[in-house]
Write a structure and sequence with these properties.
The chain is α+β, with helices and mostly antiparallel strands. The chain has three domains: about 55 residues, no CATH class; about 140 residues, no CATH class; about 120 residues, no CATH class. Strands 1, 2, 3, 4, 5, 6, 7 and 8 form an eight-stranded antiparallel β-sheet that branches. A hairpin with a 2-residue loop joins strand 1 and strand 2. Helix 1 runs antiparallel to helix 2. It starts with a helix and ends with a strand.
Length: about 350
């Protein structure tokens, strides 16, 4: 600012000197010095800012680095290939976080080299990833050419979650937010849209073929079988219904939570999460960040409703606090919430 003011002062003085023919050399020298200072300090300012941008954001043992995306294009397999550079050191893991609500806990980045297994790692300050399964984030029936698909791409050191879990845990989400990393925007092109459109058409064709091969007699048999099944369930004892219900829940929560039937919680089916991502969401909710809590409770409501419809079992389904199993965080009966700790 000072250099700019000096340049303006001497420049005006130089213009005046042209008319008065007085002190012309003095003002001309002043203009030259001021312009030199202006550019010199500007270079220093840019250098300081660039150095600042290159510094990682540190949070709970994590170091998050910004990246510069140099290329982004769709491939023949319905993915988006993203290449770029970063100041992160060799071995830093590349992560892609979707901006779609309820998917920001999932790492969408895989190595673009299909022979690689695990995270894409920074090598000589470069990386190349592919973002697959775009239709899980942006449904194929609504995906349109030119639609903006947004992701935060970054490098991180100190992150030890298993790649196979594809999870972005609570600490990393907070570190990303703290870093101020902006979205990388990819506009869906015709190749991407056609790929998922063709997939959907193929699926519809298979359904139609299957439907055409079945005659009305088969349909009647299916209906009768369904009715017999309902009648059988009605004849089950409560213990047998609980066993069927536990089978359904254990399948839904496989690898995520332990499911049990207990009498210690006013006779409830209890869900005890052990998956890190699930536990992170609960921890955030307990700390007051409920952005993802509704997704958890909605899924429990749907499961409890399904138990009543399929098994005819009206029993509470309760989510336990993984850090204090004596406390229930949420309970649903027949698809309706009967308790939510948020309301306390």
């Amino acid at each position: 600012m000072i250099a700019a003011a000096m340049a303006i002062y001497y420049f005006i003085g130089f213009i005046i000197s042209l008319f008065k023919r007085k002190n012309r050399r003095k003002y001309l020298l002043g203009v030259g010095i001021s312009i030199f200072c202006f550019f010199f300090f500007g270079l220093i300012y840019d250098s300081v800012n660039n150095t600042k941008d290159a510094q990682p954001t540190s949070y709970h043992g994590l170091k998050v680095y910004k990246v510069e995306v140099t290329s982004k294009k769709s491939n023949d397999d319905g993915g988006i290939v993203v290449k770029g550079t970063t100041d992160a050191p060799n071995g830093a893991k590349i992560i892609a976080q979707s901006s779609v609500k309820d998917y920001d806990s999932t790492n969408e980045a895989s190595p673009s080299d299909i022979d690689k297994d695990g995270y894409e790692l920074v090598k000589k300050h470069k990386f190349s990833i592919v973002i697959d399964d775009v239709d899980e984030l942006y449904p194929s029936d609504t995906l349109k050419k030119g639609q903006k698909l947004k992701f935060k791409v970054l490098a991180v050191k100190g992150y030890n979650e298993k790649f196979s879990d594809h999870v972005i845990n609570s600490n990393l989400r907070k570190a990303i937010k703290k870093s101020g990393i902006s979205n990388t925007v990819f506009k869906a092109d015709s190749k991407l849209v056609e790929y998922y459109s063709d997939d959907e058409d193929d699926s519809d064709d298979e359904d139609d073929d299957t439907s055409d091969d079945e005659d009305s007699d088969d349909s009647d048999e299916d209906t009768d079988s369904s009715d017999d099944s309902d009648e059988d369930i009605d004849n089950y004892s409560k213990e047998e219904k609980v066993a069927v219900a536990l089978g359904i829940l254990k399948k839904n929560y496989e690898g995520i939570a332990k499911v049990e039937y207990q009498t210690d919680y006013d006779i409830s089916i209890t869900i005890l999460p052990y998956d890190d991502g699930y536990r992170d969401i609960i921890s955030e909710a307990l700390d007051g960040d409920t952005d993802h809590w509704n997704g958890v409770t909605d899924s429990i409501d749907k499961i409890s409703e399904a138990l009543y419809e399929k098994v005819h079992l009206k029993v509470p389904v309760s989510l336990l606090n993984p850090d204090d199993t004596s406390k229930v965080l949420y309970t649903s009966i027949d698809g309706l919430s009967s308790y939510d700790f948020i309301d306390d």
